[in-house]
Amino acid sequence: MDVADRLAVADVIVRYFELVDAKAWDRMHEVFTEGTTARWTPDALIQGRANVVGAMRHMSGSDEIVTYHHVAAMTPVVDGDTAEVTVHVRAMHHGAGARTGKFYESLAVQPTRLVRTPEGWRIAHHDWVISVKLGSMEDLFAPEIAAGKRH
After folding, report:
1. pLDDT at 149
2. Coil, strand or helix: which one is 70?
């Protein structure tokens, strides 16, 4: 196994969370393939970079939601031009402005599949599997949840 590939895969994962926390939606091409997919609940698969980024932007794009993702243990397994890694994450979401005092936090694992592209490693699919929830997602994200139900 090539150590450089393992480090490059880990860098893409860390960069993904940096971009989410910075709300740098227009830079997600740096970490996602065009056809990336995401499964955040057992019954919902989101397909395509534009849709995945749109869903993230919908839920945490407000200036009233500050996110901080702490990426913990991960050991990428590289096999040629594909890689698998299960990332352990603490995802903190805190309210600002009108949402001050509200928060939602989760401890989760993110099984992730990456592929080597001409631009470097990119996320082709990831799941979000929550182990622990703290605070109230419904309270912090009430406007976003309500808007999603109207569509």
Report:
1. 64
2. strand
